[in-house]
């Protein structure tokens, strides 16, 4: 099915397949979670059809058309309207509104991966703006990858990359060229995912500093020229609007070095984490070769020589864009599910990118204190103390317990 045909499909046509996918991997998705999601998807479809909402709401389908809501009717503005609809329901608590919207947002992300939607409209800032703030949430309540989760995810992507690279590098010389290209592409994707996970897990770099932001041309994603694997450093455009060096600790170096060797980028200006989206790469390759004077027939023949347009882009030095922060979230959703990681969090059912940063913050504060952690996290010590105050509170609780035991024993 082509992207155009998917866009023409009704919203409800995707629900059962989405729920089946959510039912795989983790037991919790098969029970209450799946039932709750199914209920909210049904309500969303009813709202989109104009059967729910304020009296003057007629749904997302243009007035001159008589059909069910389809994916082509959805955009950023529509999700903003739905957020406003949920927030205006006086019978829902603030956190419940957030939870119901997250169900729909997760479905939206899946629709992007499956080709029904072009972008994750539900996570855009303007779409979520009408949602109420989470009430009663403390810094320590934010997701932070635990040591067990970090080890489970890094083990999974490491094993996956090792297997894919070995399968590619041990192919017999007689292997068909296209089959060899397919194996290289699989290895490249696994190696990219491994490098991305290790960087997010161990560097504490903000995902917005690492990848491309479509709304900010200065954030074009790190390039190989920004990395110094020998020195263990990486130049990133910081939140404070200036370039700065971030540390690359030892666990990150080997995945990056192996990935770079496999990719063999034509120039140092290539993104470290390029998009693998076929639709994006197909358009990029066609436009670039057209600009170089190639005729359509020649372009078609050239593309047929390669199993994937990414490999042609590497061969012709047609530089693709970096993946976006939304893309990183989609990758981590896919990997968290494949690794069958146990995640118990009210907001995310996967290991979100910011959780890697917060997880490292927890490790650094506990091991070295707030001052060292603040330097590594590129934050003020005051802010780190505020965000990780639950650690100090817990330590003070241990001190109080010890003091009580000492006094009671007298």
TrEMBL record:
<feature type="domain" description="Core-binding (CB)">
    <location>
        <begin position="6"/>
        <end position="112"/>
    </location>
</feature>
<dbReference type="InterPro" id="IPR011010">
    <property type="entry name" value="DNA_brk_join_enz"/>
</dbReference>
<dbReference type="Pfam" id="PF13102">
    <property type="entry name" value="Phage_int_SAM_5"/>
</dbReference>
<dbReference type="InterPro" id="IPR025269">
    <property type="entry name" value="SAM-like_dom"/>
</dbReference>
<dbReference type="InterPro" id="IPR010998">
    <property type="entry name" value="Integrase_recombinase_N"/>
</dbReference>
<dbReference type="InterPro" id="IPR044068">
    <property type="entry name" value="CB"/>
</dbReference>
<keyword id="KW-0229">DNA integration</keyword>
<keyword id="KW-0233">DNA recombination</keyword>
<feature type="region of interest" description="Disordered">
    <location>
        <begin position="128"/>
        <end position="149"/>
    </location>
</feature>
<keyword id="KW-0238">DNA-binding</keyword>
<dbReference type="InterPro" id="IPR013762">
    <property type="entry name" value="Integrase-like_cat_sf"/>
</dbReference>
<protein>
    <submittedName>
        <fullName>Site-specific integrase</fullName>
    </submittedName>
</protein>
<dbReference type="InterPro" id="IPR050090">
    <property type="entry name" value="Tyrosine_recombinase_XerCD"/>
</dbReference>
């Amino acid at each position: 099915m082509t992207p155009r045909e998917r866009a023409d499909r009704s919203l409800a046509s995707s629900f059962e397949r989405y729920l089946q996918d959510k039912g795989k991997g983790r037991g919790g998705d098969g029970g209450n979670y799946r039932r709750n999601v199914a209920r909210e998807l049904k309500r969303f479809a009813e709202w989109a059809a104009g059967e729910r909402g304020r009296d003057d709401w007629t749904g997302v389908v243009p007035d001159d058309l008589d059909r069910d809501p389809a994916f082509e009717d959805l955009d950023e503005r529509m999700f903003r309207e739905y957020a406003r609809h949920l927030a205006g329901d006086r019978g829902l608590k603030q956190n419940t509104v957030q939870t119901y919207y997250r169900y729909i947002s997760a479905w939206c992300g899946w629709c992007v991966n499956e080709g029904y939607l072009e972008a994750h409209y539900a996570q855009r800032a303007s779409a979520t703006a009408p949602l109420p703030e989470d009430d009663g949430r403390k810094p320590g309540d934010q997701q932070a990858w635990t040591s067990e989760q970090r080890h489970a995810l890094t083990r999974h992507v490491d094993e996956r990359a090792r297997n894919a690279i070995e399968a590619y590098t041990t192919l017999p010389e007689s292997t068909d060229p296209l089959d060899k290209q397919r194996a290289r592409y699989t290895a490249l994707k696994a190696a990219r995912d491994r490098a991305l996970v290790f960087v997010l897990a161990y560097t504490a770099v903000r995902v917005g500093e690492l990848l491309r932001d479509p709304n900010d041309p200065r954030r074009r994603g790190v390039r190989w020229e920004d990395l110094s694997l020998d020195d263990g450093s990486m130049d990133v455009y910081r939140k404070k609007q200036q370039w700065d060096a971030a540390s690359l600790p030892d666990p990150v170096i080997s995945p990056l070095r192996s990935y770079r060797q496999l990719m063999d980028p034509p120039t140092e200006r290539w993104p470290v984490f390029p998009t693998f989206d076929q639709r994006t790469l197909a358009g990029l390759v066609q436009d670039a070769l057209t600009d170089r004077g190639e005729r359509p027939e020649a372009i078609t023949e050239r593309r047929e020589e390669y199993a994937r347009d990414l490999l042609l882009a590497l061969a012709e030095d047609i530089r693709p864009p970096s993946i976006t922060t939304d893309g990183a979230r989609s990758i981590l959703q896919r990997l968290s599910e494949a690794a069958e990681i146990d995640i118990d969090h009210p907001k995310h059912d996967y290991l979100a990118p910011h959780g890697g940063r917060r997880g490292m913050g927890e490790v650094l504060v506990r091991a070295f204190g707030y001052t060292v952690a603040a330097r590594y996290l590129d934050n003020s010590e005051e802010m780190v103390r505020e965000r990780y105050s639950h650690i100090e509170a817990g330590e003070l609780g241990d001190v109080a317990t010890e003091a009580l035991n000492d006094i009671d024993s007298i």
